[in-house]
Amino acid sequence: MNRDRALAIVKEHLTDHRYIHTVGVMNTAIELAKLYDADESKVELAAIFHDYAKFRPKEEMESIIKSQPLPQDLLLFDKELWHAPVGAYLVEKEVGISDLDILNAIKYHTSGRTNMTLLEKIIYLADYIEPGRNFPGVEEVREIASTDLDLAVIYALRNTIQFLLKKQQTIYPDTFNTYNAMVQEYKLRRS
Ligand SMILES: [Fe+2]
Ligand SMILES: [Fe+2]
What we know:
The chain is an all-alpha fold and 191 residues long.
């Protein structure tokens, strides 16, 4: 599927604001793909469709999670997490994308997971640093992203966990597990 067709499909499902965010994620993800030698066409499609399910009704997302082989504990956590696995499911079912690398990058773009692939890291990070984002600390992560993909993902995870802690929100275990595993690997590689 080419870029224009993919963008036209996704536009129907997003607000203008979220569509602009999506284009930002796409451009950032492609830059990262060039920098870190990832498959640009897969990166492009994963970025375009990463927030496909963002505006689905809560009830629809809930029933998809219940009916699919997805971790049921998602339902105990913030519904912000749900659009990622539900998105992967719907992008396969409604758009017909069956490439597992692309679907997993969509599926894990909010929580992360241990042993993320290059594609998954790129989508996770691009979602965090695209030009429309302006959380505290994002500029630092942008700078690190230009030289060290793993360290940038670690910083993005750390900032996200800190942000949730400050707001006294729950943190999905996969996010902690991803942070721990990536810090451990990073230290090992440097020792
Ligand atoms: Fe998202
Ligand atoms: Fe996003």
